[in-house]
């Protein structure tokens, strides 16, 4: 009997005029987490037009996704923990179906962990640090659409091979806040240390200024060894 009902249902669906079975009509709640502060190149004001354009294109394109209603909601992620707090606050009412962003590493990390736990996909142009490559556990639901720092580091590996270089000294500015330089060079360090001798020096130009003499002395000393 249930079998008979489903056959009838298929026939009935098949007879519906003008609707292809591929078009799914569904509301998708999208939480966009980006900083409001316009000094970031990925601020809400800069990125929102692209997202709205993509939404329009999907709608008028008439493709398989034209039935989706993407309901966008923008939250200020700032560049730190604010992102996690707005995800949790927001999810008390209703969990989003999709998260776009955050970009900053420290904003993205807790959001992606929480979202992965809740089975919510996260798409980000950031979160480029090497730690996010762990797709087995806590960052399982993250898709990064820019090349990660580890990927970028392959360029350096290729240069080392080409020029037959043997060791590297990595000097980076660690601001102890967003730590973009730290995460960038971490990828290079992880990649190069597989084959080459790699040492690093961290400086904090905000607190200590830049003392080039110290760095040059350090290089001389390490070469003397
Ligand atoms: C925006 O970010 C910049 C750079 O991090 C900071 O100097 C500035 O104070 C921020 N502005 C606001 C309104 O928070």
UniProtKB/TrEMBL annotation:
Keyword tags: Glycoprotein, Membrane, Receptor, Signal, Transmembrane, Transmembrane helix
UniProt membrane topology term: Single-pass type I membrane protein
KW Transmembrane (keyword) present: yes
Gene Ontology BP annotations: signal transduction
Limits of the Receptor ligand binding region domain: 47-208
SUPFAM superfamilies listed in its UniProt record: Periplasmic binding protein-like I
Keyword Oxidoreductase: no
Pfam families given in the database record: ANF_receptor
Subcellular location: Membrane
Molecular functions per Gene Ontology: natriuretic peptide receptor activity; peptide hormone binding
GO cellular component terms attached to this protein's record: membrane
Signal peptide: 1-22
This protein's name: Receptor ligand binding region domain-containing protein
């Amino acid at each position: 009997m249930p079998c008979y009902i489903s056959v009838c249902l298929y026939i009935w669906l098949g007879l519906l005029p003008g609707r292809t079975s591929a078009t799914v009509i569904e509301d998708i709640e999208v939480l966009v987490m980006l900083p409001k502060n316009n000094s970031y190149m990925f601020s809400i004001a800069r990125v929102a037009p692209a997202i709205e354009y993509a939404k329009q294109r999907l709608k008028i394109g008439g493709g398989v996704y034209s039935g989706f209603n993407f309901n966008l909601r923008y939250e200020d992620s700032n560049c730190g923990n604010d992102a996690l707090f707005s995800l949790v606050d927001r999810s008390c009412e209703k969990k989003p179906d999709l998260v776009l962003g955050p970009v900053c590493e420290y904003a993205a990390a807790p959001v992606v962990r929480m979202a992965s736990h809740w089975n919510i996909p996260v798409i980000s142009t950031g979160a480029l640090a090497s730690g996010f490559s762990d797709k087995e556990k806590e960052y399982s639901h993250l898709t990064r659409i820019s090349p990660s720092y580890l990927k970028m580091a392959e360029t350096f590996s290729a240069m080392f091979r080409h020029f037959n270089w043997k060791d590297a000294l990595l000097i980076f500015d660690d601001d102890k806040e967003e730590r973009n330089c730290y995460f960038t060079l971490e990828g290079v360090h992880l990649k190069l240390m597989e084959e080459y001798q790699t040492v690093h020096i961290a400086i904090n130009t905000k607190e200590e200024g830049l003392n080039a003499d110290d760095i040059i002395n350090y290089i001389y000393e390490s070469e003397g060894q």
